[in-house]
């Protein structure tokens, strides 16, 4: 018994002294559990502690590799790390935590079997809580965005976007309608941060190569547009490298529009705040993220941006035995010149915070002093396509091939497990020896369509197709939104 609650027996028939519940299997969730496995070896073996990880997916996605997965440089299965393999001493539950009552030290969650069981959410008690649910895409009420927008935050979205882009080349090559061809060959990306710039750079590189294999589609026929609401892109690499990136992209015939917003994408027409209108079948939304909505379903303190307020030791402020880091946490930046600043929500901080977090939880269980998290931001690297990149690291500015090479070396060193490092390195080596693969496997998103048609059923609709219009559909645009 601990904190007045009786523990259920573990697999060995003993009652664990402490149950650590980790919510989320992303950067912070996986690396914290991995660190705890190492720090609590003795307690885990004796049954004095157990680690439970509840996560929507049975894998951790290494998001910096999503652009290369979309471009086909890396196989999608090598962008993810299977949690059960990486965390053999943890109990991994694939499910969604719906709410947390920290006053009672309980969390309610559903699993893949919950709907079939008909019993509703289950409840789990814990002694130490690690909240690391990450973030979701920050969307705005732009008319048509929910119907036609494509996200770029998961490996499934990256693979789907690759298939979609190649499919547009097939459509443009086969149609005789110039309006359909123009819309198919126009690609609009909203958001000039890492996700948007790297995704656009890699996909434009891939599509330009693929176009060479079509008899009636030329690389210059493709129209790429980057829309950014602020006055610069890639702010993490500094103003000078940001301006270089704009020159590099424009030199590749990419239309970069600063201080511009997407106001509508209804009826497959992208309407920008500068008055431009582009018929397009591709609108990729990468305009930022926001904390997971799970945080609002807890009794823990949040800041004005919806993040958990934390101390420098990564404990939730005013909530003993609750911990957080990463996108979901407002962690004081102890290395900043100005007081009151918090750590940026990026992978560089998340991985290092997870290490400190695991150490502090282990120290707390043993009654040892905690350590404050401190890490000075060393800089950033970004890929702009094959052999192209920008970097601003330790005050040094690199561009072109050296920056691209540094990007690959850095992320290869950070991707988890030796297994993944070896597979990624092998794929990079092979891609240097052989040409890109330009096959679209869009049917993977509708694998039962052919069988359902053969069996006399109605196959599921193609999500990329235009929605049918009924007699009551209003063709007029909705009120304008902003991005």
Tell me the CATH topology of the largest domain.
FAD/NAD(P)-binding domain
Q: Tell me the Rg in angstroms.
A: 24 Å
Annotation field: number of helices: 14
CATH architecture of the largest domain: 3-Layer(bba) Sandwich
Query: What is the percentage of strand-forming residues?
Result: 15-25%
The shape, in one word, is globular
- Please mark out the parts with pLDDT under 50 across 5 or more consecutive residues, or reply none: 1-14, 467-483
In CATH, what is the class of the largest domain?
Answer: Alpha Beta
- Strand arrangement across the biggest beta sheet: 7-6-5-2-1-8-20
Question: Considering DSSP H and I runs of 4 or more, what fraction of the residues is helical?
Answer: 25-40%
Pfam families: Pyr_redox_2
Organism: Streptomyces xanthii
Keywords: FAD, Flavoprotein, NAD, Oxidoreductase
Family: Belongs to the NADH dehydrogenase family.
